[in-house]
Amino acid sequence: MEDKEIKRETKGIDTSIVYDFKQYPDEISGRCDNCGNTLFKSSVKDFIFLRECRACGMKKSI
Ligand SMILES: [Zn+2]
After folding, report:
1. Share of the chain above pLDDT 70, in %
2. How many domains is the chain partitioned into structurally?
3. Cα–Cα distance measured from residue 35 to residue 56, given in angstroms and rounded to the nearest whole number
């Protein structure tokens, strides 16, 4: 059996929740709080700007 998980080290932040940027500002500006990744996917939903980490999927509304 192969046990190869492509997993970055995360802080265990729940990625199914959308966090509010005002309540949870970036620890390091422009970096994901969960895994430190700098690449994000952006989308707009109901006039709310959503930023999703490409690595771990953590979401923040900005
Ligand atoms: Zn991340």
Report:
1. 87
2. 1
3. 7
